[in-house]
Amino acid sequence: MQDFEPDGRLVADTYPVTELPLCQLRLMDDARFPWLVLVPRRQAISEVFELEASAQQQLWREATEVGRALLEVMEGDKLNIASLGNVVAQLHVHVIVRRREDAAWPAPVWGHGRAEPYDPDGLADMRDTVLAVLEGLDLASGE
């Protein structure tokens, strides 16, 4: 969709990585956690049920496949997938690889300590990792 724009708070807190069939894939600027944010390219949508059924399935496909592959590559212990929207109403889905030794385990990552922004090298490395993970995935719509 040409008129799609992510919420300004998402833009401020994340880095763009790539475009998936439905979502813009972004990286949360917190190097403590492998944390991606998927933002469906739909304006004025805040809830999953507002998407057409095929887009709901595509959102789930993208979140779970990207998460599964990232979990494996990052050697995580748990994958957290969540859509909250309490602060940013625009529909977006968090995909977070968790490790038992991470800064927030076993609590949620939200509101735990201060974010540790990526330095330029760390950001480039994480983007490269995410893009490499995506190479082997078939995220095409099942329609």
UniProtKB/TrEMBL annotation:
Name this protein carries in UniProt: Histidine triad protein
GO molecular function annotations of the record: catalytic activity
Domain named HIT: residues: 36-105
Gene3D superfamilies, A to Z: HIT-like (3.30.428.10)
A family per Pfam: HIT
